Amino acid sequence: MPLPRTRGTALRQQLAELRGPDVPAKALDARALAALAANPGCRRRAILDGAGVNKAALAGALGSPSAFGQSQFALTRGNAFEAKVKADGGAELLRLVHERLDRSAEPPAHARVPELTAIGPEGRTARTALALREATAAVGEWTLLDHPMLALDVAGTPAFLEPDAVVVHPDGTWTVVEIKSFPMLDGSADPAKVGAAARQAAVYVLALEQVAARLDPAPEVHDRVLLVCPKDFSNLPTASAVDIRKQRAVTGRQLARLTRIQDIAETLPEGTCFDPARPAEELTAAVESVPATYAPECLAACELAFHCRDRSRAAGAVTSLGRSVRAELGGLTTVTDVLAAARGEAGDAEDPAVAALRRAAELRAEALGAAALRVSATPGAPGATALEAPACH
Predict the structure, then answer these.
(1) DSSP 225
(2) I need a labelling partner for 17 at 20 to 30 A (CA). Which of 129, 149, 167, 198 fits?
(3) What is the pLDDT averaged over residues 338-356?
(4) pLDDT at residue 214 tops 80
């Protein structure tokens, strides 16, 4: 008699059926988990990532191929910069850690750099955990872990993550290091890119905290990470300490939601499957059966962004205009509703969003009327017909 399936086993089986019985799962990485935190309300992304669906292949099968991802040139440049930062046993990297995060410690004249190679991701994860334990016990020494392997439980499945570096301080505390190839100009970098790096680092911090929790006593994992970038327009490294407490909290909540992904899966029609080999009509219906929360920021973080954008625009959803606009419009969820409210054809006049839209329409009409009068009063000027536009269009 077969043993009854546990909830975890049933969930894995259900996710495999959604992915396709013969389709291997695409492993989640830190970028994908960070993108989930950037758009926590998107049920579509949650179920597709939880099931291990290859969203790039799915987007291509839907007729909206993704342009998401780094160019080969950017990857080569990034690898060259990372090698420069870690040269000479990571001397420059450790100097930046000491300078930006731990001036009270002894300067890192030398450091331990343990060997982390092993067979398979499970072997590398175990080797990393051992190296962290040994480094924490070596009080008074700096230790640099170059590309350690960490495991983070996501919806009952381990996601293997590989941060650029983890530094163990002489007091036994741990710091995540993110090395990026975008420049830091006059001490600051592009806020959007820094935010993405912070969300990615938050995933590593959560994984490190799970490793630390298995030690006694548990070492502290710093909630400030070191972001290393090229200085100005050179290839010289500079660094900044980034507080990732907010990103860590948001990511933690989103990962907790992923553990309840079965609740989303149970709402799908029977037989739903996201296998890119399925007919386009069937595949489109499967994807559309899961609600999406599109925003322009998705274009830089999700392979399905073009497909979701097209559907959002076709439906006239105000989310396609951006989250800030959506937040200002309250209960008005479509462009048609917004225009009708501005014209006074619909909406509650007591609603602050409706009142603001109507006032904006009045001001626009007044400005166009005044411009038309100025043009008509100018001798020899063309008529004001071109300026006479409807209050909203």
Answers:
(1) E
(2) 149
(3) 83
(4) yes
pTM over 0.85: no
Which tens digit of pLDDT belongs to each residue from 225-258? 999 999 998 889 999 999 999 999 988 887 777 6
Number of other CB atoms surrounding residue 246 within 10 Å: 13
How many CB atoms lie under 10 A from the CB of residue 2? Answer: 4
Apex 268 CA angle, 261 and 49, nearest 5: 40
Taking residue 312's Cβ as centre, other Cβ atoms within 10 Å add up to 21
Q: Which helix (H) or strand (E) holds 167?
A: strand 165-168
User: What CA–CA distances, in Å, run from 9 to 12, 103, 147, 258?
Assistant: 5, 49, 32, 15
Q: Please state, in angstroms and rounded to a whole number, the distance separating the CA atoms of residues 133 and 179.
A: 24
Query: Distance between CA 102 and CA 170 in Å, rounded?
Result: 10
Q: Is the pLDDT score of 170 beyond 70?
A: yes
Assess whether pLDDT exceeds 60 at residue 393.
no
Average pLDDT value over all residues in the chain: 86
393 vs 386: CA distance, rounded Å:
14
Dihedral of alpha carbons 179, 69, 303, 266, sign:
negative
Virtual torsion, Cα 215, 216, 220, 225, nearest 10 deg:
-10
Q: Rounded to an integer, what is the distance from CA 384 to the centroid of its chain?
A: 49
Task: Kindly state the tokens that stand for 171.
Answer: 């007091």
For residue 178, the cross-strand partners are 227
The one-letter amino acid code at 34 reads A
* SS3 state of residue 26: coil
Q: At 175, which helix (H) or strand (E)? A: strand 174-179
Q: What distance lies between CA 152 and its chain's CA centroid?
A: 16
CA distance 182 to 159: 26
Taking Cα atoms as reference points, which of 285, 291, 358 lies closest to residue 39? Answer: 291
**Which tokens hold the place of 2?**
């077969």
Nearest to 111 by CA among 141, 77, 82: 141
Rounded to whole angstroms, the Cα distance separating 125 from 162 reads 10
